[in-house]
């Protein structure tokens, strides 16, 4: 366990192409938060509603066995810290923000407004996403929270921290793509942080090949993009740019921005049509995803859970670790707890068990086997307000050493369409 030591909040300009005046005034600054801490749950001083208490007590059965991932230097102390009430060793070092005028703004301390709870009415919700404007994650934030203020972050971890530190009200982060598979980093971060899943959005991802105006496809010797986007366009790139090297970039739109900012005539990016517009690039090829129905699923994260309901389709996400001495059939038993109650599973993912990654087995007569230990993430189609879901989890708890409900939230029921998103 490590206590908080220092915390730097940096607001970075993400607009190296500021000469394109059309956007230099409107692009938000990207948040980059560097903190040596892990979060923990936070109790709100003004209490919670009765119905929320009901929800929490219905889940109490689960919390009783939740593994401790506590952190003495956690969120509550961070909030005191950023309010200026805590130890003097904390360096809030806000990097001066570049204004559109080109002048540097004075260093601004966080104010009480930066730390206020999510606005209920009137002002827009601040939604953290990973990437720069034009990224698919920005489009997902817009679908999840129309009219929100989208806050670009340079890493997934930063988006989590932006919510924990009350810089943002929500985060919207990708967890899986229909072609590229799971985004493992976000599964790991869900466990390390204490945010709650409050919703999901799925967006069709419609990729384009972008380059500087005048560049021909046969002159492209390098294609840069997010690794997921490169994976989703593999066959198209083999056909369009067979000799070009492929290089990973932080996000699709950042790749487009990089080409524009550095005037790269030999490089193309896989990104959205909106990125082409934002960074003044031409579209060499449109719709280059290898499957026309390419969809990415994003989770909406908040500091507080929502109250589960039964009047519309809900999904619940859990993570668990098997009890060590329960034999080899634990996974089968857990899954059958859902099957016997007619609860459909929509996703199962395993990740290394970071606290206990290996189990050595065998009596030594033939040596010892080293079995890997896992955390299992399961999504199932039921609301935690339903008795069958509560009973299933009560049973699952018997076979597990660790169990956490990550969230119970409405399913994205948007009618199926393969056309590109309006924003992307
Ligand atoms: O790079 C982006 O534009 C992102 O929003 C990230 C991301 C991802 O992490 O999978 C999101 C959707 C697409 O699947 C490709 C990339």
From TrEMBL:
Keywords: Amino-acid biosynthesis, Aromatic amino acid biosynthesis, Chloroplast, Lyase, Phenylalanine biosynthesis, Plastid, Transit peptide. It is found in: Plastid, Chloroplast stroma. This is Arogenate dehydratase. Gene3D superfamilies: 3.30.70.260, Periplasmic binding protein-like II. Its EC number is 4.2.1.91. Converts the prephenate produced from the shikimate-chorismate pathway into phenylalanine. It catalyses: L-arogenate + H(+) = L-phenylalanine + CO2 + H2O. The keyword Chloroplast applies. Residues 126-303 form the Prephenate dehydratase domain. Residues 319-410 form the ACT domain.
């Amino acid at each position: 366990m490590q206590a908080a030591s220092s915390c730097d909040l940096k607001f970075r300009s993400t607009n190296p192409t500021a000469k394109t005046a059309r956007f230099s005034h409107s692009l938000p600054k990207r948040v980059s938060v560097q903190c040596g801490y892990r979060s923990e749950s936070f109790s709100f001083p003004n209490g919670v509603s009765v119905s929320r208490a009901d929800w929490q007590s219905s889940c109490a059965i689960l919390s009783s066995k939740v593994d401790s991932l506590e952190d003495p230097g956690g969120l509550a102390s961070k909030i005191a810290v950023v309010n200026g009430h805590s130890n003097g060793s904390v360096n809030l070092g806000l990097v001066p923000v570049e204004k559109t005028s080109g002048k540097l703004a004075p260093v601004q301390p966080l104010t009480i407004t930066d730390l206020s709870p999510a606005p209920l009415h009137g002002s827009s919700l601040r939604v953290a996403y990973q990437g720069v404007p034009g990224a698919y994650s920005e489009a997902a934030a817009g679908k999840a929270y129309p009219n929100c203020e989208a806050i670009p972050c340079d890493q997934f971890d930063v988006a989590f921290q932006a919510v924990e530190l009350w810089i943002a009200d929500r985060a919207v982060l990708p967890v899986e793509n229909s072609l590229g598979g799971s985004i493992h980093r976000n599964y790991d971060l869900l466990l390390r942080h204490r945010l709650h899943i409050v919703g999901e959005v799925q967006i069709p991802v419609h990729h384009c090949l972008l380059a500087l105006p005048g560049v021909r496809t046969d002159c492209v010797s390098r294609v840069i993009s997010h690794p997921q986007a490169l994976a989703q366009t593999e066959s198209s790139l083999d056909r369009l740019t067979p000799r070009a090297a492929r290089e990973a970039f932080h996000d699709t739109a950042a790749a487009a921005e990089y080409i524009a900012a550095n005037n790269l005539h030999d490089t193309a990016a896989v990104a959205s049509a909106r990125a082409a517009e934002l960074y003044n690039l031409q579209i060499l090829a449109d719709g280059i995803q290898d499957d026309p129905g390419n969809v990415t699923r994003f989770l909406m994260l908040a500091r507080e859970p929502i109250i589960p309901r039964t009047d519309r389709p809900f999904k619940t996400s859990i993570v668990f670790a098997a009890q060590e001495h329960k034999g080899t059939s634990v996974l089968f038993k857990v899954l059958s707890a859902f099957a016997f109650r007619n609860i459909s599973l929509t996703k199962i993912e395993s990740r290394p068990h970071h606290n206990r990654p290996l189990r050595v087995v065998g009596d030594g007569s033939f040596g010892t086997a080293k079995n890997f230990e896992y955390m299992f993430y399961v999504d199932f189609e039921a609301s935690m307000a339903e008795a069958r879901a509560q009973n299933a989890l009560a049973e699952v708890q018997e076979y597990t050493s660790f169990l956490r409900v990550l969230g119970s939230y409405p399913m994205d029921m948007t009618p199926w369409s393969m056309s590109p998103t309006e924003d992307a």
